[in-house]
């Protein structure tokens, strides 16, 4: 039955992949047809060649077919020339497909488009039937072809990256805008009585960018669309000024409302048209602007949620940056200060210990004070025969340490001189020795407590250091997005107490939301959809935690990878409590954590230690602490939880779902097996378990994984004797789920135990998959 399900799942995945490939080829074919129809300076159409030079190799045939068809439909008189150019580009791409250094160059696509257009243009310049009237037009066309190819190649590359548009740099955003303008130019030739569909689209896009992107959005979009459409015809140069000026003015009035944007754009565009054109063109401009304005007015405001993040700028950016640096500086200094406090406490304690620690000599001194000071023979024993008496007491100390107590007979045997107060000395020695032992035990307990407290100082210092590093990696706080989130969530009954939208150095946004418990009930999916709309980014499902009556939700942008996790356990001797404990979760910032802890021994006590270590580690990691800082808290908790010895191994795997990088952290844990590219790697990282000594450290290693790679974490119950069977099992496991893999490992581990001893067995298998 399971095999049948796996076969159905495999067939479904194959069908989905085939459908996705077909749809992508259709998109490239249609895009090739559209860009080929984009004309400039009358009838010159170099953009189809630019597109053919920029598309990925596996979609090249679809793109070539689309651009060829587009050129045939465009101008039959010049279609031969452009088809020849497309064929030449296809040949160049095919000949250089194996030269990675060439094809991966940023100048490859522009040159592949520039050279054929220039060569054929020079030849046809002297042919009377050609639309190329001068060498200047030939050079302009070739330059525009190369430039468009550069923008197309950038856009194609960005389309394969799983990043939100809001995370793109200004150069990347400009490439997308200009690519969109070329596509709009393709509709420029679609006109009814001189009214261009392409120009209507350009005005609509400019109004949207001005309304939701402010002055920056209106100006950038107005300049880009104006520049593209002004070169479409030799007598439409006024469009560049009209759209640029209109976009600027619409952006200035964007805070007033949609209607103000429309009026500002239409007046500005009309003024530029009157200044550089005639009344016929004015009528066309007004009709196009009016049509676009009507569409703009009826569009829902949610459209702006995807535009605003591209052009948004944080309010009071300089103040926010100053505060961020101030927080980083204070956390850094506080971390160092607490670590110095720990060192100072340990230093002072060590000095006091050397000065005031009890010694066995103090026992004899007290006996001499309590017993011998009132004896009439003191002058003889302690003054005249001081050395002999001292040696007598030293021998008595040795017997006291050996036996734990002394009697009158011991004194009779040890002392050289006869003593008249043997009973009093024996009683005093025993009494003071008991006090001495009690002092040593008390000092040991104080040392243990001080050691734990010092470990806590170290842990707090590490926590502050982690927070400092986290703030350092944050580029800025997007207050505008946070305000939109608060407004939208409040409108649907979810009451945000605080909202912070942090943009990291990688351009990704993390959202942390504190929600009032008085809010109406909500689902993770509802929260994710609302936050995605407000921020204009695609977020993953949030991590929601509850602490002290507060609800914290953490969001990260949709990662590149996902994980498939399977777990299985076996309890030793068919017991009810397992000494091993496991857990896994997403931390809300694009990382998946997998934890396996193994308490000492089996049964209830081991279960307490293992579950305690897992629970504390999970809680701290979810709160945002690093595994290294969390380990110090876990270690201290195990040391102070009871007088009995408590320890647990800690095995933590952190999987970065954006890069596929896996960080292994082990404290006394056994091997972890990694299947990468069909090979199995056993990671053995010696270290001490938690609960034995203070200031223990993880043994750490990292591995870069990709789709299909597998991580298998096990407890020591799996490993007994030769573990080659486990490597072979993981290496040959190519079908089935990770849950089935975990079950198979547990079953085989039970079979391979040959020491007659049953033990708890835990297996956690993680497979990296593409995030659909």
UniProtKB/TrEMBL annotation:
Pfam families found in the cross-reference section: SpoIIE, SpoIIE_N
Q: InterPro entries per the record?
A: Bact_Sigma-Reg, PPM-type-like_dom_sf, PPM-type_phosphatase-like_dom, SpoIIE_N
The answer to whether UniProt assigns keyword Transmembrane helix to this entry is: yes
Spans through the membrane: 59-74, 108-128, 134-152, 173-192, 212-231, 243-268
Keyword Ribosomal protein in the entry? The reply is no
For this UniProt record, the keywords arranged alphabetically read as follows: Hydrolase, Membrane, Transmembrane, Transmembrane helix
Q: What is this protein called?
A: SpoIIE family protein phosphatase
Species per Swiss-Prot/TrEMBL record:
Ruminococcus intestinalis
